[in-house]
């Protein structure tokens, strides 16, 4: 069973969320999510979400191995965390949460509701030691 580490809900400026290494500089560079593009090799993933003018986006960060039911897999890969800190944020960096992980590379999976522009995401990280 997965354990919930954090939940945040906010109006996502530009309709974009970054899942990234918290120790990289804040960037507003946005790559198309349809390519599952990483804005900085192995350190960041860009996710298109509902725009701030339309609704709030809800993001849950969980630790564990179990895939969430009813959601579509958006990203499944490894990201590098220089000091072991994952950050989920909006473009401006005004809304964010930081989670402590083991430094180095970690498998990160991002799931979204099955919609073209999702209102909710789950970021799944490996179980913490």
Cross-sheet strand order for the largest sheet: 1-4-9-8-5
> Which class best fits the helix and strand makeup?
mainly beta
Query: Biggest sheet, open or closed, and with what strands and sense?
Result: 5 strands, mixed
Succession of helices and strands? EEEEEEEEE
* Alpha-carbon distance between the two ends: 15 Å
How would you characterize this protein structure?
It is globular, with a radius of gyration of 13 Å. The protein has no helices and nine strands. By secondary structure, the protein is an all-beta fold. The model is unreliable at 32-39 (pLDDT under 50). The protein starts with a strand and ends with a strand. Strands 1-4-9-8-5 form a five-stranded mixed β-sheet, with no helix packed on it. Strand 6 and strand 7 (96-100) form a beta hairpin.
List the keywords.
single chain, 129 residues, mainly beta, five-stranded mixed sheet, four-stranded antiparallel sheet, 48% strand, globular
Write the layout of secondary structure elements.
Layout (H helix, E strand, L loop, with lengths): L2 E8 L5 E6 L22 E5 L8 E7 L8 E10 L3 E6 L5 E5 L3 E9 L7 E6 L4
Parallel strand pairs: 4-9
Antiparallel strand pairs: 1-4, 2-3, 2-6, 5-8, 6-7, 8-9
């Amino acid at each position: 069973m997965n354990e919930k580490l954090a939940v945040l809900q906010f109006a996502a400026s530009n309709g974009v969320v970054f899942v990234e290494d918290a120790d990289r500089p804040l960037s507003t560079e946005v790559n198309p999510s349809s390519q599952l593009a990483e804005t900085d090799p192995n350190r960041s993933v860009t996710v298109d979400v509902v725009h701030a003018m339309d609704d709030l986006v809800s993001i849950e960060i969980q630790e564990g191995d179990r895939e969430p039911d009813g959601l579509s897999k958006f990203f499944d890969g490894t990201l590098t965390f220089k000091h072991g800190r994952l950050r989920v944020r909006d473009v401006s960096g005004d809304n964010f949460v930081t989670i402590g992980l083991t430094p180095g590379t970690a498998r990160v999976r991002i799931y979204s509701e099955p919609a073209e522009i999702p209102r909710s995401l789950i970021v799944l990280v490996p179980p913490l030691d």
